[in-house]
Amino acid sequence: MNPQANRLGGIFLPLLLVVFAFGLASSAFAQGIVSAGLTGSVTDKSGQPVAGAAVVATHVPTNASFTATTRANGHFAFRGLPPGGPYTVTATAAGFTAATVSDVIAELGREVDVNVTLQTEVVKLEAFKVTAANDDLDSAASGAGSVLTNARMAAQPSAKRSIGDMARTNPLVTFRQSITDRDDQMITAVGQNNRYNSILLDGARINDQFGLNASGIQSFFNPISLDTVEQFSIAISPYDVRNSGFTGAAINAVTKSGTNRFSGSLYGYYTSKSWAGKDITGTSSAPIEGIKPLDTQKTWGATLGGPIWKDHLFFFLNYEKFDRESAASVPGFTPASADLSAINARLSAINTAIGTKKADFGTFGGSPLQTQEEKRLAKIDWRINADHRLSVRFNDTKGTLPQFGRFSTTSTFAPSTSLANTAARGTNLSSNFYTQQRTEKVWAGTLFSSWTPDLKTELRYAKTSYEQLTTSPIDFPEVRIFGVSGVNNAGASISNGVLFFGTEQFRHGNVIKVDTQSYAAHADYFMNNLTLSAGIDREDSDFFNLFRQGSYGLFEYADIASFLADTPNAFRREYYVSGTPVADVSQFDITGLYAQAKWDATPRLNFTFGLREDLVGSSIRPILNTTFQTAFGMRNDGLPDGVTEFSPRVGFNWSVDDSRAVQLRGGVGRFLGRAPWVFFSNSFSNPGVGRFGITQTGTNAPSLVSYINNQFDPSNPIGVAATDGDPNARRTINLLQDKIHLPAVWRGNLAVDWKANFLGGNITTEFVYTQQDNALFSDNLNIKPLVVTASSGPAIGLDGRQRFNGGSNGAAAFNTAFNEVIRVRNVSVGESSYITLMWDRPMKNHWAANLAFTKGRSTEAQSTGQTVAVDGWTRNAVFNQNAVEVSTSDFEVKDRLQLTLTREWEFAKNWKTYGSLYYEGRTGNPYSFTYSNDLNTDGVSGNDLVYVPTGTSDAKMDFSGLTAAQASAYVAYLQNSELGQFAGSYAPRNRFTLPWQNRLDIRLSQKIPLYKPADLEIFADFINFGYWLSRDVFGYVEELGNNNGVYARRLLGSAAYTSAGQIKPSGITLDSAGNYAPADSTVNPLASRWRIQVGARLRF
């Protein structure tokens, strides 16, 4: 052992322990496992255990050695090892010849089996060497999950090189298909919400904790380069109680480290808009041709690693830059030159009138979107001495994404005011554009210690800082001019366009900041055939959310003449009251304590028993609204503060025979998840006090020039007032059920693994069941059941549906002093069942394969897949509003077939060629049939599930508003389609699925040897190759027009209740053949197209 290393360790280690102990004491949920383990037994040739044998595991790249001693049963275990390798494991014992197992790969979060057989010295005097098999069954496995090694990652076709592309290789994990290609990569596991996963890097949480991003991560694209990742772990039911913070999947990655050899890489990827399909055709939906081209994307980066001090201190560095050029946004129309000239002239006059407050209002016409993202990473690994090692990492991601703003086509103030023209198209000047900027910085460190052969510890600290800023060219009210003439995109002349300029109204103060610190201390103690584990972890997050929509002011002009005269039709501005917070500041913490025992009952049977307790805290409450409290008899400042959660777990693994050719594994446990904080933050944003808006119309509205000169300060643009300017105004309230629980599930699995030697791999059959324990559910407390009058009809329709008095924003509300009152509470309904049959063949004889079929069913009461709590209520297709109705989940994937094939060729010495393909076939997204209007008059349109009549004489229906032909065609469609099975009742939510989807991706790569040890790899990824190969076979991805990327609905016209409580349909249009044919599905033009990406990587 190096004396200098011991001296440094003796000085540094106590100091580091003091720092960690202080951190744990002052503030100690970093549920990431960042290390690997090796376990096994040492036996003699007769199979008897060898006690007291010395076992040494050597990490070949760094020459680091780890030691263990076999117990009385011959068992040994290593914890806290760097994932990857390779390792060599050597066992020695008195009277035996040393035996070595080489090429052992340690897997993240797992214990890989390494069993060693010793020969007596009399029989064999030379060391005995074997090579580890990569298809042995894992005796420590119990739960559902998988590990993706560096080699498997490299072979996977991937255009995005993302966490999602790697996670989808697990048969229980897929993407929720969005309407914007797979850029969103909404990762969903076993039918659970895509925002309910835990994503960690080296133990640091990199989830989008605030919860606005469908991808579940905080960066625009990838939070880290795949070139820096050593391994991925995808866990669905890990019974190790260190894991927590998810109800979907726990996706954990560990980064690469430097070794004793200097090495690095230069790499680049490129795809062009010319290398993508431009025509989409299919067999059922209408073809789309000449669609908007895809983006041109360029990525380049570099890695470098090596020793600072051989065998002791190592470094690893990475830099990567991503550039994307997107086509310019297509304006809704092109203004007539005369109108545009008049508007520009008036803008020039406005600037003269406002003097020093003048602004650059921009020009008409978009420019290409230039998107960028940069990533940096630096990692240091220090082997302090033989018993202690430290790993420290910093990485950051910075991205910018320009946006063209939103083009509303109707007045914000309608129906209270009306304009001379209602806009059919919208466009804007460049002052209405904005740019989002996201920055994420992560610091993470772990200290691994071996105090005795039986006691191992890990101390871990991580800090994540995330900031999203929105910058606009100017700080100015948003101005809308209606009645602008021009030409629309179809080339037709219009006179009712609307033109925007000024700061886009949703960017009037728009900042998000999230700072998170996590601490963890973990210990393992080996005692005979028991491994005892215990620990504490804590996560503390601070949230800053500034969102002041409309706080700069919003002007609307009925036509150009009104704009030229500066006589607005309407004006509105949002204010906050001085002395109340301008931003929503909130806090969340969770502290976990856990203990666990792994019992190796026999060499063939082991159990894991664990218990976890989590204490949830939130020290900052929303403003208490006493008026609301008096009106509704409840407080609006509820939080999850002070809630305690217990999560017991048990897992087992049993080898059916001594050779472990077949094993049975499984377990059951409770998993506490996390909700996107935005669902809870809404109660800070909408307490109903301290904020208000003032609307002025007609002659009461100020002129733009007067407002800028007398009321608006560009240096402090957010509206502030000394007192509430409209204390009698109706307010919107968001609240949480007090002591609300975080989402949690009970989950269990049962699996059979079979080492099928004749197939060269393993066959697994696995069943995973999930039961919701505490799901989130939004309801509206301010909608009022129908007040029955002589003409209204019954409060309950003849179909059994509850009717309401009207929306909560009008005179029909339950309490007319308030608008929507949205409460988030817990319900314990919903479940999922998934079964998988998989064959996995690791690389042997130059080829590898993975084939899996998964069948699933998932139910829920509400998807909570949106970004605000009210959307959980308004966007949930229902039969009875506010009732807890269990139905198919928005995230269900009923059937899924996957195939991955990898082949290696060597046509010339050291010139290796690789080919990989990835096929995925799956059922389409679930969808519902609803009426297009508001049947139950709860104030929400398009969410009422359709009643299916038994015929034209159904007593619950009134067809008097239709002709006989229309009524017959309407009923025929409902009865002859999938809806027919529900005749006499309503069609449940999400009971139907869009057509089957096929996708085939391929990857080809060629390694070119250069001067040793350098080589050059060139490669190409052909995404959606199947569609390019055969449109008839692979088709395209279909979606419904009424689709927001989470829910999908097919609208079946309008309907209303009669005074007798019957449903009276209207607005039914027949086609030329006399049939009723509601809008068919359409093509998703982004997800359906093929694309080619090429790249090169120089390794040295």
Residues in helix, %: 10-25%
- Poorly predicted tracts of residues: 1-30, 282-290
Biggest β-sheet description: 22 strands, antiparallel, barrel
CATH-assigned homologous superfamily of the domain at 145-259: TonB-dependent receptor, plug domain
Task: Indicate the CATH topology of the domain at 145-259.
Answer: Ferric Hydroxamate Uptake Protein, Chain A, domain 1
Q: Helical stretch count?
A: 12
Q: SS-based structural class?
A: mainly beta
Strand content: over 45%
CATH uppermost class of the domain at 145-259: Mainly Beta
Oligomeric description of these chains: single chain
Radius of gyration (CA) equals 32 Å
Total DSSP E strands: 60
Name the CATH architecture of the domain at 145-259: Beta Complex
**Average pLDDT, to the nearest integer?**
87
Given the C-alpha coordinates, what overall shape results? globular
Distance between the termini: 31 Å
Explain how this protein is built.
This protein has about 1100 residues and is mostly beta strands. Among the domains are: about 30-130, Sandwich (Immunoglobulin-like); about 145-260, Ferric Hydroxamate Uptake Protein, Chain A, domain 1 (Beta Complex), CATH 2.170.130.10. The chain contains twelve helices and 60 strands. It has a 22-stranded antiparallel beta barrel.
